[in-house]
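Dear Dr. H.,

I hope your travels went smoothly. While you were away I took the liberty of generating a structure for the chain from your last submission, since the lab meeting agenda had it listed for discussion. I wanted you to have the full record in hand beforehand rather than looking at slides cold. The sequence, exactly as received, is reproduced here:
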Amino acid sequence: MNQNRLDPVVIEKITALIGDRFTTSQAVRDQHGRDASFHAAMPPDGVAFVESTEEVSQIAKICFQYDVPMIPFGVGSSLEGHILALNGGISIDLSGMTDILSVNAEDQDCRVQAGVTREQLDQYLRADGLFFPIDPGAHASLGGMVATSASGTNAVKYGTMKENVLGLTVVMSDGRIVTTGGRSRKSSAGDDMTSLFVGSEGTLGIVTEIQLRLHGRPEQVAAAVCSFDDLENAVQTVIATIQVGVPVARMELLDAASIAAVNQHSHLSLSEKPTLFYEFHGTENGVKEQSEIVSDIVQDFGGGDFDWATREEDRNRLWRARHEAFWATKELKPNHEVWSTDVCVPVSILADCIVQTQQDIDENDLTAPILGHVGDGNFHVLILLDPDNEEDVQKATAFNSRLVKRALDMGGTCTGEHGIGLGKMGYLEAEQSTAIPLMRDVKSVLDPKNLMNPGKIFRLKDAS
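The corresponding predicted structure, in token form, is as follows:
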């Protein structure tokens, strides 16, 4: 399985280009053949650590000439097998492309290389009073976030990557360098090629630079948590908050099982009940008004009092605990893996979907905490399983299929932010059956040799 299949000429040419930043070391290949999912590792045949768009372009030209697959790699935090090298090939590691190329504070935009992480950019922008709000929780690279159309805890107020990417530099399969979009906030100039690449998971081209929309840091920020006696009332509170139009920045749900795991992992003492995490952004008066309205809604649905965190260090501790829920869940059964799956449904029927999902978990005796960015209808289930136990795998697979079907039947989607990768290809075919032939047409034009992250998102031909 790990036998190197690269033509020696390819190795020679890429080594001549970037020297010892190209390696066929087994340890490095293994590292680049796995992500944060439970999927078995599939290593590439070589790894190229690139530092510029021009290097990516030259490597792509070599790969195109010799029919070598290319898999872009950021930090490896994806959750659906996106970076697995199904057909071998070369992993193009962009983590060394960490330059922040420009910041236009007056226009609230910037341009960065694909290896810049969200945390790195946020730290850099502090002096200008700006921030980039998309926060998937992982220490993700911005190029990877573009590839998966990442979202996260702030999406309810600030949108997802789709709404915050203004333009891209992309290297195509034959090495051509294409620039899309620009700095203007809107354009009617031709097809929206930027949006075509956002969420394409490296199957159409390799993103090397990104023009991003930024936002001003809010004058006042306050976070709060409140618990409920049952899951349905917690979710109904979310629905009512959205319908009233309160511009909440973050609104996260953790069920009782998630809270128990987070308490243990992060040394917190939250009530082990369904709990909502809130964050309010705005002026001092605006934050006060938002919190008062939401507090009234919480009381209407039987929620407890708000436990406030207004100091930055307290807020950071609270949200760090939320973001570490994946690892907290894993600690519940140390010898098990976490299958993190997600769906998204219209907010008005979110309660029905989550309650039915909880019943499914209970009826099938699964350990599977529920949490999510419920302000936009997106939630996650973290299924604990032993990947070597066939019964565990079958139960988890059947549950995931029922979860996706439930979401689709409710007018939702098989994934709100994790993407398709390898893990959800069959579900995309059920959700977008009439659009997939068009996706195949686009793929065949932009990647005629099927070298760009092959075997992801959809099959090139219908299964026979």
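Two observations you may find useful: The longest helix spans residues 390-409. Residues 296 and 431 are 38 Å apart (CA to CA).

With kind regards,
E. W.
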